[in-house]
Amino acid sequence: MIDAYEESAGMGERINQLKPGQADISHGTILYLEDVTLSFDGFKALNGLNLTLDDGELRCIIGPNGAGKSTMMDVITGRRKPQQGRVFFGQNIDLLKLPEHEIANGMVGRKFQRPTVFEALGVAENIELTLTGSRSPWRMLKVRSTTTERDRIDEVLTTIGLIGLRDRPAGVLSHGQKQWLEIGMLLAQNPRILLVDEPVAGMTGEEVVRTAELLVSLAGTRTVVVVEHDMAFVRKIANKVTVLHQGSVLAEGSLTSVQNNPKVIEVYLGETPCSN
Amino acid sequence: MFSRKSLGGNDTGGLIVMLFIALMLVWVSVGNLAVHESSPWHVSTYTVTLLGKFLCYALLAVSIDLIWGYAGILSLGHGAFFALGGYGMGMYLMRQIGDHGQYGNPNLPDFMVFLNWHELPWYWHGFEHFWFAALMILLVPGLLAGLFGWLAFRSKVSGVYFAIITQALTYALMLAFFRNEMGFGGNNGLTDFKEILGFSITENSTRVGLFVAAGIALILGYLIARTIVRSRFGRVLVAIRDAEPRTRAAGYPVAQYKLVVFVISAMLAGVAGALYVPQVGIINPGEFSPLSSIEAVAWVATGGRGSLFGPIIGAFAVNYSKTELTTIAPDLWPFVLGGLFILVTVFLPKGLISLLALRKKRSMTEAAPPNETPRDPGSKIANQHNAPPPQEYLP
Question: What is the pTM (predicted TM-score) of this model?
């Protein structure tokens, strides 16, 4: 195990400079997490976590509070570096060697649990700031909006259904609209993997339906990972579910198989996993 | 439409303030130089210098608003950059004294002769040239801000912690400049200036010239800051201010953005200090005092942060009150300043400019969401600019 780890670390260094477009996904796998361990003051938030995502799949991740879901997303997005383990994008890009902002640009986009949009800016401006392209301060001082950019912004706004609100300040949007705007901001970044943390928390029934449609329509062209407590919602969208518990994978498979798994039932105190 | 307004598309306020300053420059200059002293329209040289000082303070306030109002970086040590710019100009003015000093030494400023020094320290060389001093006035604050900001932003130091270390920075510089061995005149600082660019510094026309220069610097500084906040760069700054983790997740190298704007701001503060010194005739380590920096932040808050022109109004209003009050009851001033700060924070959180723009109910720079996330009590706190969203604390 240790040998294999060191060998791969050496390989990672050599191919560190690859761009997102050069990711090798010939095996159909877009993300590998292998034996990832991350502890805070002795508490293992992630404990030998193994996870593989296929390119284009829609995966739901569930688990009780403190199971390591948020920490796992922190590791994938480069926000935290684990003490041990490997995280690869495709076959050949070592995410542990990349800074957060490079991973965010074209590889992994993350939607935070609480909707976080730039409230003082307009809806279209929110999308504009997240469009793919150079993030250098010097470019941003000089750059002017182009027609291509405006078209792309409108395209994203149409997808998320906010085209009619393009000039509103994001701060006045409803909770659900902010969630969609944030998903739109991720789409503008054109990531291969979309990490979505509790997208329907606090949404009305109708908003939940629209969100489910949106996420399902996005899978296929990109990989969508949804972390969610709401089992009704998970049932609507998922074909494959991963259950996390105490920092590692407890069970994986279809929702029905997972719900009938005795280990999962035990973790959820004998009930079907459902937080509401 | 609304969103355009948010970042300076609506510039009526700024335009009025700029026009007012331009008008003041003309009126005061003419009133001092062309109107006879016996006329009620005469503007005294005392007033010219006083307003000139305020113009420099206003530029300092704009520089603070650029980082605090737009990028959410609260610096409580901006007086340090102001003072460094001031020392740069002071060194040039000292070298201009030549052999007109008390000891008549053509090569050494008086305080060095007094300390029995025999030659000019290496870092004083070059300051006999105005162009060199001007370059240093930009470079020294810029480099210090660059180094300091690089260390702080790289380690994601922000909010209160950043404010505290900026206080420490200016305090440390104050202690250093108090020392005679530093070669900056110690306790007394640099003073007894005679000439600037060949003009006698006590001459009325020179005073008016310096006053006009400060006014032009303020207008230019305001325009530079405005260009920055209206660019897409400025929108990234606002994004960082309101949702830093989100901005980082969107792929922005946040530390670089903060660094760039911090350096530009420090340079503006340096220029303000450089124009301040020839008008007041002295620069001493007291300018590094942590209290001065806090006062400057109070001007910005009083005027209205995140507008660029509000802080100009704030700098004038607070300093005018200070001048009036310190002549009537000098001991009262700290209490008035403290009281003012509390009153503004409680009743006018957007500063004096919210009085001027009452009909525009909603300042778009701080659009509050009408409906908070129902299950998230933390979101209210997170809407305040300096409070990082709860995710920051997640293990």
Answer: 0.82
